[in-house]
Amino acid sequence: LNTDRPIGIFDSGVGGLTVVSHIQKKLPFENLIYFGDTARVPYGTKAPETIKKFSLEIANFLVEKDVKCIIIACNSASAHAIHHIRKHYPNIPIYGMIESGADFTLSQTKSNFVGVIGTTATIRSRAYQIHLERINKNINVSSFACPLFVPFVEEGLYESDLIDPVIDHYFADLNTEDIDSLILGCTHYPFLYNKINEYFNGEVTLIDSGEAAANYVKEHLKEFEESKKDREPFYHCYLTSATNKFFSIAENCMIKPFDEIHYVDID
Ligand code: DGL
Question: Which residues pair with 8 in a beta bridge?
């Protein structure tokens, strides 16, 4: 594989930037193409067939750009579309969020009581639960959807007090003594890390599924190539619609900014 080929990363919107930031830290010489489907966000409220269709359209686009692998930086798309994309592109490594996030969680939990939060699509798929239980039969999983978190993050309101009652509302039924780890099973949620951590008084380990995936990709890329060292990588961004907040959020979260921005129509 040619080391100059970029890594393709996609999400419905800004969430995948949390994964981009980890990739920038862990693989600082890799070229990246980020695709945010800002015209069609959110994915997590949509039907599995729709998520599959959108995800494959993006994968087609990234393959056209000659990416060497694809990171599905979206749990909803990972849960519903990874097999579909792998079937279309059996020769391109396709990395999702679920398995690496679940494996990392199993390495962290001591009580075997874990929580999973995500979009409605991800929680309905039971993808985390299935993988966690496959690896550890004694695991106890409480999972629930937090659909309002995504629009708050897309609006850049992740540090605002406006989110506090929303967090209270979603976590009200969760007995915090029940779990020792909570999977942030949506790549938008790490933006709320501080808020959620405060809610739990730092007593629950919050698992960033994107960080776990970035570690996995780093390990895996090593198997077949070494990144070119001391190279200035390029970071290209493709969006399906201009949005107000995308670039101020990107600026807050990325290690180095995008050097090219393009708007595209793919459907
Ligand atoms: N960030 C995505 C996820 O991890 C999608 C959020 C959405 O579009 O609903 O599920």
Answer: 33, 70
One-letter amino acid for residue 186 of the chain? C
Q: What is the pLDDT of residue 203?
A: 92
Spatial strand order in the sheet of 205-208? 140-145, 113-118, 181-185, 205-208
Three-state secondary structure of 215-241: HHHHHHHHHHCCCCCCCCCCEEEEECC
228 pLDDT above the threshold of 50: yes
Give CA–CA dist 102/86, Å, rounded. 20
Pocket test for ligand 1, best of 9, 10, 12 (most atoms within 8 A of CB): 12
Q: Is the pLDDT of residue 224 over 70?
A: no
- The amino acid at 257: P
CB atoms within 10 A of CB 223: 7
Which pLDDT score, from 0 to 100, does residue 250 have?
96
Q: For ligand 1, which residues put their CB under 6 angstroms from it?
A: 11-13, 15, 41-44, 74-76, 119, 122, 150, 186-188
* % the chain with pLDDT above 70: 96
Q: What is the pLDDT of residue 148?
A: 96
Our mutation pick for probing the ligand 1 site, out of 76, 95, 149, 209, counting the most ligand atoms within 8 A of Cβ, is 76
- Cα 107 to chain centroid distance, Å, stands at 19
Confidence band (pLDDT; 50, 70, 90) for 2?
Answer: very low
User: 127 or 230: which carries more pLDDT confidence?
Assistant: 127
Q: Are 186 and 213 in contact, with CB atoms under 8 Å apart?
A: no
Alpha-carbon gap, residue 209 to 18, rounded angstroms: 10
- pTM beyond cutoff 0.85: yes
Strand locations in the chain (E) = 7-11, 32-36, 69-72, 94-95, 113-118, 140-145, 181-185, 205-208, 235-239, 260-263
